[in-house]
Structure formats: C-alpha cells, structure tokens
UniProtKB/TrEMBL annotation:
Residues 1-156 form the USP domain. One of its GO terms (cellular component) is nucleus. PANTHER family: UBIQUITIN CARBOXYL-TERMINAL HYDROLASE (PTHR24006), UBIQUITIN CARBOXYL-TERMINAL HYDROLASE-RELATED (PTHR24006:SF915). Keywords: Hydrolase. It comes from Lates calcarifer. GO terms for molecular function: cysteine-type deubiquitinase activity. This is Ubiquitin carboxyl-terminal hydrolase 3 isoform X1. GO terms for biological process: G1/S transition of mitotic cell cycle; protein deubiquitination. InterPro entries: Papain-like_cys_pep_sf, Peptidase_C19, Peptidase_C19_UCH, USP, USP_CS. It holds the Pfam family UCH.
Length: 159
C-alpha cells in the first residue's frame, strides 16, 4: 500500500504494508516530517508561541482515550535561539473538560485584553460558552493542569 501523506513536502509517497502501518504513521507522538522551509534559520523570534499538548491517544486495541496526566503550566517561558533569547508570558489556554475523548466541553481562559503586558492585577477571564467569569493566572495554572491542550504565549517586550 502506498499512502499519500499531506504533511509531507511535495505530497511524497510513503510505502506502507498494511493498515497497522498507516495507524502508526498517524498516531506517532513526535513530529514525523519537517517542511524544507523549517530548515531555514530565522533571525527573529516569533511574537506568539503556541504549544499544543497531545491529550488524546489510541490504545493498542485502537480505542481513543483521553490523557489525564498533569502538566506544570508555566506563566513565563524563556526560549533561546542561536542569536537571542526571549521571555514569553502565558496569555491564553484552551481546555477540554471531560473524562473521555469522545465527550466533554471546551472552554478558554485568557488574560484581560485591557491590561498591558506588565500588569500586576493578574486579571484573567474564563470563557464558557456565553458565561464569562473573572479568574486569575494563578488559578488557571493550578486548575488547568489536566485539561489544557493548547497554550498561547506572547513574547514580552525587550527592556
């Protein structure tokens, strides 16, 4: 069997022997392919950093299950590159609230958009459909350790 994988540059063909091979390709936890553009170094660090946490997996019997492992959410991240380093601040999370991969509810937490990048009030909001409640970044980092799966960080301005 030959599988055309859309992530592969130029729609390369992957030689796969059976459906198990296909399953293994699409459920690997690591990045399988890099676009040739990724190999080009950039002279600047991105303003926004998005981290996607893999919260679902397939069991050996091909059942989808949710991963409940806690992740220590960091309010600040320091990222270094060949030229520079940058400090990023957590500004938003997307969370799956539910016990299984097949059911649950999605909510979002975000820093108050009306505050500046260096704000001591730590005012955040939780967006749950039409209900918006005030919270704090400390609460978000403590309460979303098992449910967050997309984290948005913004680069802090250089002094």
């Amino acid at each position: 069997m030959i599988l055309v994988h859309p992530v592969v540059s130029n729609w390369a063909l992957l030689p796969l022997r059976n459906n198990c091979d296909v399953f293994k390709v699409f459920t690997k936890s690591k990045s399988l392919f890099l676009c040739h553009l990724v190999l080009i170094s950039s002279r600047s660090i991105n303003r926004v950093l998005v981290l996607h946490l893999k919260r679902f997996r397939y069991t050996p019997t091909f059942q989808l299950e949710k991963i409940h492992d806690p992740v220590d959410l960091q309010r600040e991240l320091v990222v270094s590159s060949g030229q520079d380093g940058a400090c990023y601040s957590l500004i938003s999370t997307i969370n799956h609230i539910g016990t299984t991969a097949r059911s649950g509810h999605y909510i979002c937490d975000g820093v108050d958009p009306d505050v500046g990048p260096v704000d001591l009030t730590d005012r955040w909001f939780t967006y749950n459909d039409t209900v918006v409640t005030q919270t704090s970044g400390v609460n978000v980092c403590n309460q979303r350790q098992r449910s967050s799966y997309i984290l948005f960080y913004r680069r802090q301005p250089e002094d």
